[in-house]
Give the backbone structure.
Amino acid sequence: MTVAACAAERTTADRCPGNLALHRAQDGLLARVRIPGGRLSSAQLEALAHAASLGSGLVELTSRANVQLRGLPTDGGERLAEIMRAAGLLRSVAHDRVRNVIASPLAGRHPASRASTDDVVGRLDEALCADPALAGLPGRILFTVDDGSGIAHDPRADIALIARRPDNYSLVIAGWPAQATLSAAQAVSYSIRAAAAFLAECRERGSGAWRIGELPDGPSAIARRIGVALEPDAPAPPETRLVPGVVTQRDGRLAVTGLARLGRLNHEQVAELATLVGELRVGVGRTVTVLDLDPAGARRMRSSLERLGLITEPASGWTGLTACAGYGRCVQARSDLSGAIEARASARRPDAEPEHWAACERRCGERAGQPVALALTEHGIAVRSSDRDLVTDTLDAGLALLDGGPR
C-alpha cells in the first residue's frame, strides 16, 4: 500500500456544509446532514422530508451516505436546525460537520460479514461528540467501520476499522493497516486517539491539512503518537459493491436495496418511505436498504420501492452513474443533460466503471480519481476514461469515446 498523494498545502479551513454551516449554491442554500452508519428511522425520514420542503424539495444521497437538502431560503437555517435537533439528527452543534462515519447498510448481516457494527458505530459517534477538542477536525475527515464484507471499505478513509471476528477489529490509518488486533471497545478508543493525534500533528507542523493522507508521512506520524506500528505490505481488504435488489442475510431473512437515480429523491418520495419502514439504511452507492424482512415482506418492499421510482434490478445501467447537482437547474449549466443521462443509463453496462457527468467545466460532484467522466465545456465535450482525456464536438462523439470508440 502507498500513502495517499499529498495535496498542495492547505491555507484555508475546509468549507464542508452541515446542518448549521450552510453552503450558498446557485439554487439557494445547501445543507448536509450527517448520518453516522446511514441509519434513519421513520421519524427522521419524516423530518428530512419536512426540511426539504422548506427549499427545492430535493433530497440528495451522497457518496458518504449522508443527505443533502437544496434550495433552502436565506432565512431557513434556524428552522432547519430546529427540525434536525428534534429528530436527533443534530446530536452536537460543535461536532455537526465531523460525524462522518460510514458503515455497511447490512451492518453484519451480509453473508461475508464477520461482526455486527451498529454498536461500534454508535459508540464511535458518541465518543466523537463527547470530546470537545475533536470539534476542531476538518469536515472532510472520514471514519469507516466495515463488518468484514468490504461494503464499507474505502481506501481513502482517514481512520478505518475492519472486523476480523465478532469482537476483533483491525485499525487502518489513511490506507495503512496497523499491527494491532483490537476489541470493539479498543477499536473505538484507538480511532478517537488517532483523530486527536491528527489534530496534534497538524498543530505541531503548522499544517492546515484536511486529511491524514495530506500530511507527509502522516499515517506513520499518527501511528507513532498512538503507539502502534504499521504494516506497509499488508493486503488490502476486499471492496464489495452493494447492488440493488434482494440479499439473503446470514440469519436467512432478507434485505432489499433500492438505488436512487443519480442519488436524488424528492421530499414526497422521502415522506412516503417514512410510511413504509421503521428504519432504513443509506449506503455510499446512493442506495437505501431495508433489513430483516420475510419473503412476503421483501416482495412488498421491492414493489413499493419500484413504485417510488427506485431501481431494484441488479443489472441496471444506473448503478455507478452520477451527475452534478445542477445538471438540470443550475444557471451555470451549458445544457440540460436530463434526457441524455436517461439514455446513457439505458445503454450503459451495469458492471461499468463509475461514471460522472457534469453540465459545465466546474465538474461539481466529480470525485478525485473518477474513473470515467464527461463534462460540457466552452471547448466542447470533455471526456476522461482510462488513458483517454479528450475533447470532442458532439455528445454522440463523447459517448463513443466513453465506450471505447475512436480517439
User: Anything to note?
Assistant: Residues 184-205 form the longest helix (22 residues). The CA atoms of residues 34 and 66 lie 5 Å apart. Confidence is low (pLDDT under 50) at residues 1-6. The first strand starts at residue 23 and ends at 25.
